[in-house]
């Protein structure tokens, strides 16, 4: 079993909770309240700006050319491709540039991005890329799970299609291979830290959808 297979199995209960989350169930059914999706898409745009920085830092620290290429390309895609998706949703869900610019990151969004930034600043390349992986892999799993049962027509079909696209699956497989390669050269302590980082980032994925579903704000 590869390292990635092990850490994927380790987060099985979290993945089950993600797949069962009402945000995703209602998104698949096309019944998710537009306010919840608007909340998600604005927060996701804040998230992706920071995620792209984490990818750029991973690219800078990657020991191989394959890693530098993959993560620098990912940094570009996070800004260009996913932002284009967001802009299309902003237009159809009535979010103006001004509204997006004035939005503050929620605790879930800031927690996730700050965690990635902290790893990039103070931990190993191995831990950083393990924390980067759920953003690919969890979305790929969600996209593939939702697509066959999604209602049609569905106001969220562009979102579903993006994360069920074969090209997204291929990018996920390439990042997984980089994580496996890093783990195969790492000692026990680093591998344990990588598994922890992967689990924490997967938890943040659940929290991100949950926060959008409840349209969370700061409690004070
Ligand atoms: C929070 C989050 N995680 C993952 C993805 C997919 N790149 C995303 N758009 N947003």
UniProtKB/TrEMBL annotation:
<comment type="similarity">
    <text>Belongs to the TenA family.</text>
</comment>
<dbReference type="InterPro" id="IPR050967">
    <property type="entry name" value="Thiamine_Salvage_TenA"/>
</dbReference>
<keyword id="KW-0784">Thiamine biosynthesis</keyword>
<protein>
    <recommendedName>
        <fullName>Aminopyrimidine aminohydrolase</fullName>
        <ecNumber>3.5.99.2</ecNumber>
    </recommendedName>
</protein>
<keyword id="KW-0378">Hydrolase</keyword>
<dbReference type="InterPro" id="IPR016084">
    <property type="entry name" value="Haem_Oase-like_multi-hlx"/>
</dbReference>
<feature type="domain" description="Thiaminase-2/PQQC">
    <location>
        <begin position="8"/>
        <end position="214"/>
    </location>
</feature>
<dbReference type="InterPro" id="IPR004305">
    <property type="entry name" value="Thiaminase-2/PQQC"/>
</dbReference>
<comment type="function">
    <text>Catalyzes an amino-pyrimidine hydrolysis reaction at the C5' of the pyrimidine moiety of thiamine compounds, a reaction that is part of a thiamine salvage pathway.</text>
</comment>
<comment type="pathway">
    <text>Cofactor biosynthesis; thiamine diphosphate biosynthesis.</text>
</comment>
<dbReference type="Pfam" id="PF03070">
    <property type="entry name" value="TENA_THI-4"/>
</dbReference>
<dbReference type="InterPro" id="IPR027574">
    <property type="entry name" value="Thiaminase_II"/>
</dbReference>
């Amino acid at each position: 079993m590869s390292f990635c297979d092990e850490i994927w199995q380790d987060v099985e209960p979290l993945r089950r909770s993600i797949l069962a989350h009402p945000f995703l169930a209602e998104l698949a059914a096309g019944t998710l309240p537009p306010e919840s999706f608007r909340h998600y898409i604005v927060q996701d745009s804040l998230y992706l700006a920071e995620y792209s920085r984490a990818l750029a830092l991973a690219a800078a620290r990657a020991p191989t050319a394959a890693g530098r290429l993959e993560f620098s390309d990912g940094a570009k895609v996070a800004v260009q491709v996913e932002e284009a998706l967001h802009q299309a949703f902003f237009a159809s869900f009535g979010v103006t540039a001004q509204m997006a610019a004035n939005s503050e990151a929620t605790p879930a969004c800031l927690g996730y991005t700050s965690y990635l930034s902290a790893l990039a600043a103070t931990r190993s390349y191995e831990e950083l890329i393990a924390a980067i992986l759920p953003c690919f892999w969890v979305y790929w799993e969600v996209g593939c799970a939702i697509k066959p049962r999604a209602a049609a027509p569905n106001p969220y079909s562009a979102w579903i299609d993006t994360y069920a696209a074969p090209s997204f699956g291929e990018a996920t497989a390439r990042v997984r291979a980089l994580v496996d390669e890093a783990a195969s050269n790492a000692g026990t302590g680093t591998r344990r830290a990588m598994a922890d980082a992967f689990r924490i980032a997967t938890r943040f994925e659940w929290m991100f959808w949950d926060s959008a579903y409840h349209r969370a704000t700061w409690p004070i």
